[in-house]
Amino acid sequence: MLLTDKFGNEGKLDALRAGADAWFTRPVIDDEFDASVQRLLDARKVKHEQFNRYMHLYFTENRITIEEPFLSNTMQMIEHNLADPDFMADDIARKMQLTKTHYVKKLKVLTGKEPVQLIREMRLEKAKILLEKRAGTPQAISELVGFSSPGTFALAFKEYFGENTLLLYAQTPNRLI
Q1: What integer pLDDT is reported at residue 171 of this predicted model?
Q2: What is the C-alpha to C-alpha distance for residues 3 and 25, in angstroms, rounded to an integer?
Q3: Which helix (H) or strand (E) element contains residue 2?
Q4: Model confidence over 71-130: pLDDT tens digits?
Q5: How many whole angstroms separate alpha carbon 15 and alpha carbon 13?
Q6: How many Cβ atoms are within 10 Å of 57's Cβ, its own excluded?
Q7: Residue 44, phi then psi, degrees to nearest 5
Q8: Which of 25, 64, 76, 98 could potentially form a cystine with 103 if both were Cys, beta carbons 3.0 to 4.6 Å apart?
Q9: For residue range 35-62, what is the model confidence (pLDDT) as tens digits?
């Protein structure tokens, strides 16, 4: 969002081409400014909700596609490195040829999540699918998804899903939703 003291629309097209979502000249009309800010915030909230839905379905048969190449590449890199407990945002940024700061800001704008949070949530989403399929013990699955400690994994799982890994693992497959 840009606020300028330039008269008229001078520079507006350049600003919009560069990625600005809105352009205001002085004096600003408060109602117009407030409505534009609210519209942008609402749009961002919708994008974050859509991304959360995408992420929850990522490891399922119901996976949906995402149009944003930046997010698609990020998710693929995380998926391919789930088992590596040392895999971090620096690795993704480097592969995308971005600075870590630029990568973190862009990811935060598009998803509402910090890279560490996204990686952790992806690990937990994959773990839940593996637990439901009984692909291994909770301890083995914790290693498969990059947790170096089964205790840390169990706590993170409980915090994220509100379920205990052992209880989910113990459920019969017929009772799963």
Answers
A1: 61
A2: 6
A3: strand 2-4
A4: 999 999 999 999 999 999 999 999 999 999 999 999 999 999 999 999 999 999 999 999
A5: 5
A6: 13
A7: -65, -40
A8: 98
A9: 988 998 898 899 999 999 999 999 999 9
Helix 69-80 with 115-132: angle, nearest 10 deg: 60
- For the chain, the distance separating the N- and C-terminal CA atoms, rounded to the nearest angstrom, is 44
The residues near 38 (Cβ < 8 Å, ≥ 6 apart) are none
What tokens were used for 115? 């890279």
Please report, as a single letter, which amino acid is at residue 153: F
Dig out the tokens for 41 from the structure.
Answer: 């915030």
Name every residue whose Cβ is closer than 8 Å to that of residue 9 and which is 6 or more positions away in sequence.
23
Q: Where are the alpha helices (DSSP H) in the chain?
A: 12-17, 30-57, 69-80, 89-95, 100-111, 115-132, 138-144, 150-161, 165-170
Q: Which domains does the chain have, with CATH numbers?
A: 1-57 (no CATH), 66-177 (1.10.10.60)
